[in-house]
């Protein structure tokens, strides 16, 4: 916008300068010519009184010399009454031009080498017409024209430069508020909730700044309300959790009792984490640090030990593969635990008792793939299952389970794919990038790769 305004001002100012300077330059040239010939007419008029009195050559030569124009002036007197013609001074005009001027009886100009001549007819006492010739060199005709044109050009250039400076200042006044608005939008998009824009500049940009600041204030208020709501809702869970923790103390000893107590303790920790996160003043926008993470195999073994007890009670066959050696991934342990629990919880919640399931870990050069598959009825609409907040409509379905898994994978540059497993049911593939680059042959961010689908309840 700034340079466009400068270009427009340069074009307009240039046209104005040309429109006025060219005619003015021509007028100056014509004025210089008129001045030169006016001087020549005055010189010719100075000789007229002497011609009206005498035609003596010697006297006329003295008059021409006293006029100071002996080289640039000539007098042509025709022959009469037996007297010879008299020519004084250097003749530059042709005899034909002189005769023509004598015949028409008025002054005329004619071009000669090096300039022009003024031919002024003058009546003699004898009734004849003498012609006074005054030479006007070209240098006298153009005297001062070059300087005047240079001054006009300098004025024109100064006007153009001045218009550029003014246009640039106006452009800055318009562009800077727009740039600050763009910078504020970028900062707000990066999570800097304190970003605001000065309400200055042209009226339209001031209104845009006011609207942006109002929007930013509303965003901050909405996020604060959301954090408070999440914290309040999470805090309400503490009472039933306390009751569960007290009740687990009466379960006695045994693997089932220990697992129940461990599950309640983990649930309390998760609720505390949610409350602390919701109470934070700033959103969590930090990216996952490559190198910090957990051992995927160890987490898989630990969670499968937890879920195996429930699987044994329901008569489910369980298989674990690829978790016998360390597999380091750039994901926090708590996040991977939450993702695995969400997927394994879906298996127990949405498949009949006795349905087998398996967890496989595949370690590649640039990615780790964790597969959770089952022999259940499958998923009717994988796209809806992946969409946040769109559950199956059954009890206990919030629509957040697969979204937790998706966000974990995408935090590393990977994704989640849902397909049909070799067991005949659903296979959820978690693709975790090790170097943060986009995986090969991956789909659109958060996309679901569909192959062949079974029928049954949606899983979330």
Task: Sum up the structure in keywords.
460 residues, alpha+beta, 5-stranded antiparallel beta sheet, 5-stranded mixed beta sheet, 12 helices, 12 strands, 53% helix
What does this protein structure show overall?
The protein is α+β, with helices and mostly antiparallel strands. Helix content is 53%, strand content 15%. The protein has twelve helices and twelve strands. It has helices spanning 2-53, 57-66, 95-104, 138-141, 145-189, 203-236, 238-248, 255-279, 296-313, 333-350, 382-386, 401-410; strands at 73-77, 86-88, 108-112, 115-123, 129-137, 294-295, 318-321, 328-329, 357-363, 367-374, 415-420, 426-433. Helix 6 (203-236) runs antiparallel to helix 8 and helix 10 runs antiparallel to helix 12. The protein is rod-shaped and about 165 Å long.
Write the layout of secondary structure elements.
Layout: H1 2-53, H2 57-66, E1 73-77, E2 86-88, H3 95-104, E3 108-112, E4 115-123, E5 129-137, H4 138-141, H5 145-189, H6 203-236, H7 238-248, H8 255-279, E6 294-295, H9 296-313, E7 318-321, E8 328-329, H10 333-350, E9 357-363, E10 367-374, H11 382-386, H12 401-410, E11 415-420, E12 426-433
Parallel strand pairs: 7-9
Antiparallel strand pairs: 1-2, 1-5, 3-4, 4-5, 6-8, 9-10, 10-12, 11-12
- Multimerization state: single chain
- N→C terminal distance: 50 Å
Unreliable spans are 283-291, 389-398, 438-460
Percent strand equals 5-15%
Spatial order of strands in the largest sheet: 2-1-5-4-3
Count of runs of 4 or more consecutive helical residues: 12
Which value, in Å, is the CA radius of gyration?
Answer: 52 Å
Structural class: alpha+beta
Instruction: List the helices and strands in order.
Output: HHEEHEEEHHHHHEHEEHEEHHEE
Strand element count: 12
- Helix % is 40-55%
If you average the pLDDT, what whole number results? 79
């Amino acid at each position: 916008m700034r340079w466009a305004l400068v270009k427009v001002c340069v074009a307009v100012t240039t046209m104005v300068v040309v429109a006025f300077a060219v005619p003015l330059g021509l007028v100056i040239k014509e004025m210089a010519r008129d001045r030169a010939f006016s001087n020549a007419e005055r010189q010719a008029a100075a000789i007229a009184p002497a011609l009206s009195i005498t035609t003596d050559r010697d006297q006329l030569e003295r008059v021409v010399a006293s006029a100071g124009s002996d080289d640039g002036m000539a007098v042509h007197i025709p022959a009469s009454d037996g007297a010879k013609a008299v020519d004084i001074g250097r003749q530059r005009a042709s005899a034909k031009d002189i005769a023509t001027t004598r015949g028409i009886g008025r002054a005329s100009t004619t071009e000669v080498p090096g300039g022009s001549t003024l031919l002024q007819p003058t009546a003699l006492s004898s009734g004849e017409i003498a012609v006074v010739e005054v030479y006007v060199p070209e240098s006298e005709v153009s005297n001062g024209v070059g300087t005047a044109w240079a001054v006009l050009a300098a004025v024109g250039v100064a006007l153009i430069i001045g218009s550029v400076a003014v246009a640039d200042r106006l452009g800055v006044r318009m562009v800077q508020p727009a740039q600050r608005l763009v910078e504020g939008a970028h900062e707000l998009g990066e999570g800097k909730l304190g970003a605001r824009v000065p309400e200055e500049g042209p009226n339209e940009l001031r209104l845009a700044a006011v609207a942006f600041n109002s929007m930013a204030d509303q965003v901050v208020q909405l996020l604060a309300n959301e954090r408070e709501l999440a914290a309040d809702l999470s805090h309400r869970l503490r009472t039933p959790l306390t009751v569960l923790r007290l009740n687990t103390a009466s379960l006695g000893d045994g693997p089932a009792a220990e697992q129940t107590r461990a599950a309640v303790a983990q649930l309390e920790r998760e609720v505390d984490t949610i409350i602390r996160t919701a109470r934070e003043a700033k959103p969590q926008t930090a990216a996952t640090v490559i190198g910090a993470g957990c051992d995927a195999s160890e987490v898989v073994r630990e969670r499968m030990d937890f879920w195996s007890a429930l699987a044994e009670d329901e008569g489910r066959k369980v298989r674990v593969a690829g978790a016998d050696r360390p597999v380091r991934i750039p994901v926090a342990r708590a996040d991977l635990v939450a993702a695995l629990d969400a997927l394994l919880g879906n298996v127990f919640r949405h498949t009949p008792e006795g349905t087998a399931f398996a967890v496989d870990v595949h370690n590649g050069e640039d990615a780790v793939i964790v597969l959770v598959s089952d022999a259940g009825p499958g998923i009717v609409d994988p796209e809806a299952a992946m969409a946040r907040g769109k559950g199956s409509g059954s009890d206990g379905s919030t629509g957040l389970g697969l979204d937790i898994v998706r966000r974990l994978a995408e935090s590393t540059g990977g994704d989640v794919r849902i397909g049909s497993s070799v067991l005949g049911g659903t296979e959820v593939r978690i693709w975790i990038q090790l170097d943060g680059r986009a995986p090969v042959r991956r789909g659109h961010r958060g996309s679901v790769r569909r192959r062949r689908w079974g029928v049954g309840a949606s899983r979330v």
